[in-house]
TrEMBL record, chain A:
Its EC number is 7.1.1.-. InterPro entries: NADH_UbQ_OxRdtase_chain4L/K, NUOK/Mnh_C1-like. Pfam families: Oxidored_q2 (PF00420). It is a multi-pass membrane protein. Coiled coil: none annotated. The gene is nuoK. It catalyses: a quinone + NADH + 5 H(+)(in) = a quinol + NAD(+) + 4 H(+)(out). NDH-1 is composed of 14 different subunits. Subunits NuoA, H, J, K, L, M, N constitute the membrane sector of the complex. This is NADH-quinone oxidoreductase subunit K. The lineage of its organism: Bacteria, Bacillati, Actinomycetota, Actinomycetes, Kitasatosporales.
Amino acid sequence: MSPENYLHLAALLFTIGACGVLLRRNAIVVFMSIELMLNAANLALVTFSRMHGNLDGQIMAFFVMVVAAAEVVVGLAIIVMVYRSRHSASVDDASLMKL
Amino acid sequence: MNSWTHAQGVLETPQFEWVALSPTLIVVGAAVIGVLVEAFAPRRHRYGTQVVLAVLALATAFAAVVGLAADEHASTQAQVAGMGALAVDGPALFLQGVLILVGFVSVFLFAERRLEPAEHGRAVDSFAAQAAAVPGGTAEKLAVKSGYTTTEIFPLMLFALGGMLLFPAANDLLLLFIALEVLSLPLYLLCALSRRRRLLSQEAAVKYFLLGAFASAFLLFGIALLYGYAGTLSYAGIADVISGAPPAVDPGLAATMGNDAYLLIGGALVVMGLLFKVGAVPFHMWTPDVYQGAPTPVTGFMAAATKVAAFGALLRLLYVVLPGMRWDWEPVLWGVAIASMLAGAVIAITQTDVKRLLAYSSIAHAGFILAGVLALSEDGVSSVLFYLAAYSFVTLGAFAVVTLVRDGDGEATHLSKWAGLGRRSPLLAGVFALFLLAFAGIPLTSGFAGKFAVFSAAADAGAMGLVIVGVIASAIAAFFYVRVIVLMFFSEPQEDGPSVVVPSPMTTSMLGVAAAVTVVLGVAPQYFLDLAGQAGVFVR
């Protein structure tokens, strides 16, 4: 099977993630959509690594996993903190500052 | 036998140029020690230990940068270090020097403990007693009563600074991404730690985090596509493939390097991620909210240092990796620069909050700096370096002034409360007026020298359109800077207006340094222009 199909899948997953960020209102779901985008990039990296026959892309994918884990730690800490003070994780409720 | 199932030969020990990498290593090492101090030192010793540690580390790191520059690493000895991951060259060392100085001065702003009224007999800083406690809840009252303080801010700030030092030096896409995350994640946390107005602060953190992570996902997908196009993550390797002359073409590369879609989309996504960090229109939406909500010392540090680091990374990407496709990105960045200058200047006129005003002014300045980037010449690079050095100290100073003007609810950021400030405390209002004049680019301030350098580089490169728009935007921007000065000096003070708190010598000296840099770079800029001029060449 041509590896290009994996690239199509990666692009599709990335788009789904981006739409999720723009359309969903719950901060946790928005955050999950961002993680989906990161993993779509991982899939693309690994596919390209296979196409080029070198390991750079796979190593990058490992680094991305570590970074994504660190991002989860920071992100959930912030979201949980906001939930505790507002009793809501909706990104629409966080609107004390307006233009 | 293929390369992912069998080891091909013996793994060699990587060669690291420890000396060339020492500035970053010192800062990150101090951050790690800072975490250990948080874990093991008794609470009452932490504050002093952290401040001394941060100051010592930054002083040593600055000495290391100066040593490397004196050793000709900025010119003839410029090299690519760390197995091709990091460039040690003129722009990298210049920006690292600026960043470390900004960090050094920011430590004093972070450590200030005389602005907030003492709680239960203990002096407190502008950061939350306990970040996890619900604002106004019993846990928070208990934390305040027991004298908790968030001294983690110092290691967090050093980690962010470590990422910023790597960002303009990154010479492959892997390090670019890692540096971006290392600088961003601590900043997201620092934004959430304000002592006053904690709901605003938390909201700023959520917005900054979600939008920042969104932008870095775009950057990452762009990196994946650029890697797919060129089959390598290194800047020089990608530039070779773009110019059509890679050293070796294997079948995989032959298949992908013909596909311009990878290159165009990948390049666009990576540049987009960097423009988000820079805060240029149309990726600026986070700037006003985050600048307003974050604790003011953090805002000052972030506004100054992030811009320096992100413009460094953007310069290297455009000048080293993508010069082969300048005809594709030049018109787009022209649009971004013009939109940033005009939108930043026009929207700032309508603002009533000092911090939001400074945020929109920073968007306009991102546009001015982009004009220098678009000169696409050695002069362009050195003018941008000079502008960043001048701008960062003005920004830090302006936000430091904001921390001092206070009323019963903490900082009085609404502009109407600043009326008549010049009559009540002429010195502070005078210093703030100096910073505003520098933002506006009035002669004899650093802002004028910076703007002149950037616009003359752009004009020499034939970008007259940008220069004309830039001058118009500067005139619009000068209007609202001068309006604040008029408000401070020529209107009656309010009855219940804010008072100016007398800070400790830390903030005073920090303000003195920022004002001195603003004046010196304005009156006698030649030495520093020469310095930036010598640092204007990228290593490949």
